[in-house]
User: What shape does this take?
Amino acid sequence: MAVIPFLIIFPFIAAVLMYIIRNNKARGVVAYISAAAIIIAVGVLVVQWLRAGAQPVELYLETESEDHVILAGELVLMVLCTYLSFKYKKAWISILSIVPTLMLAYFELWGPEMEPIHHVYLDHLSILMCMIVGLIGGLIVIYAVGYMHGYHHHHTEYVDRRNYFFMLLFIFLGAMFGFVVSDSLLWIDFFWETTSVCSFLLIGYTRTSEAITNSFRALWMNLLGGVFLAIGIIYFGYHAGTVSFQALIAQGTAGEAFALIPVAFIAFAALTKAAQLPFATWLLGAMVAPTPSSALLHSATMVKAGIYVLFRLSPAMSGRMSGNMVAFVGGFTFLMCSIMAVAQSDAKKVLAMSTIANLGLMVACAGVGTPETIWAGVFLMVFHAVSKSMLFQDVGATENALHSRDIEAMHGLIYRLPKLAAFMFIGIAGMFLAPFGMLISKWAALKASVDEGNIMLAFFIIFGSAITSLYWTKWMGKLIMQTNKPKVHDITKPNEVFSLTVHAVLMIALCVLFPLLSGWYVDPLLKEMFGKVQQTLPQALLVTLIVVIVLVFLVPLVAFLFESNVKTNVKPSYMNGVNTGDNVTFVDSFGEPKHLSLSNYYFAHKIGQRKLMKPSQLAATVVIIVMICMVIGGAL
Amino acid sequence: MGKVKKSPWLLHYDASSCNGCDIEVLACLTPVYDVERFGVVSTDDPMQADILLITGGVNSQSEAVVRQLYEQMPRPKVVVAVGVCACTGGVFKDCYNIKGGVDTVIPVDVYVPGCAARPQSIIDGVIKAVEIFQKRSDEHDAYEREHRHDGQVPAETSGKGNQ
Amino acid sequence: MRVSLLWILCYLVLAPFLGGLLDGCDRKISARMQGRIGPPVLQPFYDVQKLFNKQTIAVRRVQAAFLLVYMIMMIFTGCMFYGGTDILMCFFVLSTAATFLYFAAVVTNSPYSTIGASRELIQMMTYEPAVLFACVGFYLANGTFTVGSIVQSDVSSILYLPGFFFAFVFILTIKMRKSPFDTSASHHAHQELVKGLTTEFGAKNLAFFTITEWYENIFLLGVVGLFIVNRHPVSWIIAVIVVLAVYFLEILIDNTSARVKQDTMLKLTWTVTLLSAGINTLVLMLIR
Assistant: This one.
């Protein structure tokens, strides 16, 4: 399968090209071609793998020289982090990079002899991740070409470093492919650090003081995870004599005492990557970056790396202390971030909060670690990737046109920017309404957590999902309210619209094909993971689901067609008889017309981030420390 | 064709009343008079009301409001002027700001005199209004039936282009 | 299959009549509690008939379409329930239906209906946990979410689920828009929000809304009954009595309490949900 090295190396080559080409038009064309090549390569990979029988595949036994390249890469990353930390007077952060890198280098060069292992492992889960990264990543790159044009048009105060931006996007894609196909923990660590550094550099893109502060916050949190990852790897390597991820999972599942600590440490690293409490703040800060990086790294793919690792580890965590820790942190994050999302009126912040919350739900699913929860988690991941990527892109495009990303400014957006508002509507509907997959997944997660007797998690899901619908519904309502503000000039580029359209089609297709996907793809995935498979969706529910899908798409259509033919007498809305006739102004007590402004509830002073973030971080930290100590104590 | 008279919903508006008549209107809803036994509901909302009950004479402030409330009510609709001020302007008739009775602004169907109008007479007025309401509804239906096929619709009920 | 089709048919045909009748009784009993004679029991039907006879009006034409979707989804929820499918899914579809009601109210840009609709959202958030907890309770008691299997159980679910039942009856007050939790749309006159989220629904739209409420009430009372019903036929009679008693209780609460602010509602309801359903869950987990 020569396509695998292509997927990892080609983005790096494209990244170099991106940096070299200074002409925006030419770079755009190359970016399109590279994105298309990546999408096609992923397609080839999937087809090849399916034709080979869709079985787990192990590859690349002898990789002496590649190992050295990767070690060199790690050292380069370390030097880069150290240089930047010193340059911006945050020297202590460099320790978090130097220590694990040197530890790993020592371990690799002078440590004990390791068993030879296959370095690449392909199964349903990694192929699924490849599809998400390739397809969504490719589309976001296409979107970014148009978006960055509008961005620098709108934000003239920032230096135009688009070549650098696209370089980072492509490096990230390559690292992400490498990450999901690797089985060697050393390779995983390298790609992991690469994505962390890409994220750090992208957050700091604008070089404002806020961006720099936020980027270093993201860096130290992710590097802290990296430290734990490295310790976990080395501990496992010394005890087991191998650095194969699959071996770790197998021994962890078997309950070997020496595997417990690495599992817990790597799970902890995954929590930092997935921006769970107490590390949620780095992802919120990451929203200062241009939207394509928010969509790609901080919602659709990179944060899913943490989820991917947790899914892999879930059989080893299920029913153990580390599983309880992960399930609690995930559930708690889901609840608290959902509450804090209510208080946000900045669209991107709402998306960020909801991303963290949904990641929390996936993390919790992984922590419980039964086939049902992983089923729910995989679907959450897929649906979330598509709809969040779409929403981020849409909010970005809206901000370019509207010069604001406040939800209150989106009052009546459907009349002012009809195309973007329609995409936004679909995207939001996908996040919480029946019959879109998020809801079904929540159903499965709730059922599984009750089955497992994890009442705490059931409680988090119940309250969390009640709150989730509040902030989405009020946003959707805002879009359709009447307004007399003029139409906004829509500066969205055709490539942005293309990406959005593909996302919307993909989302509706996923919704319709969802029952089929469950049987074709996710059930085999679970079989690989747990060795057994059971029908998660009862047949009766499947039938209901199909009826609901038909109903939800058909009924509004029929209703709108039907109602457009009914003769209706249109009246002004009720404003105590002082409506001036256009429904947005009224006559005040001085006889003057006055504009009516309506706002949603936010309760920012009661449940805002300022009020809740610190206590929830504290609570999560205490739980994590206590539970990690218990894991270590139990294993030693 | 439906029996609409069993469900007359009121919209009560105080155009410039001294509150004397308003208190009596509210008294109709109390256990003593219990106007709800005729199906009367005080809705507060013109979109849902059938009978507009106005107290007090119309002044230059309330004129536009009265017009708009009347316009917002769906047809068939009936107007009841409660109290002598609403009927004619009463003792305020010659004030500089008073237009006069409600009928100077919108067509009034039932006049309930009195200062203040007694609850009994208000109920009487409402019952009269209910009969008119039923008659209008029947006429409305008949009109609809007649004009269903020739494509003609009454000006006010035509749907499109009215927004 | 045939039995559930029969149930669905019964629900489709009978629910509006039953719902309207209950509504009429509600108004009559309320009037008697206040020392009045009150309207005839069939008054709600007269009202709806009149509403259909009025001129079709709207602030935005799209309102009617949203309301129609709300109505169909709501009826579908009831059909799912009485057809014996998954109860958790029923409530998920129900919340989707409620979203369309919200749209119908806010699309007008009217101040009163928008504030009413915002409060409706808060109410939805308030009652949703108790509803989901009730579903979880049924699952814990019977090992299934399927309504068809729950009614076939050996003993009534309420024996295991008194706390869940209490929480559900508590939120029923919100769901039925009864005082003290009628902040989004009140049946009573002279309040600060006019008619809340129904302010801009006139004539036919209001008729749709009213009929949907009847369907919804019958669905909710069905859930109350589900707590009681088991495989013995006698339980069905007891269930009907309990349902009527609960309905009477709601009327009593409506007439004896003043409305509260929405944050009081939220705190009170969530506390009750957490305490009664939470403790009940813990006990259930321990004895199983």
Notes: The CA atoms of residues 146 and 152 of chain B lie 9 Å apart. Chain B touches chain C at residues 1-4, 6-7, 9, 29, 31, 34, 36-39, 41-48, 50, 74-76, 137, 140-141, 156-157, 159, 163 (CB under 8 Å). Residues 150-163 of chain B have pLDDT under 50 and may be disordered.
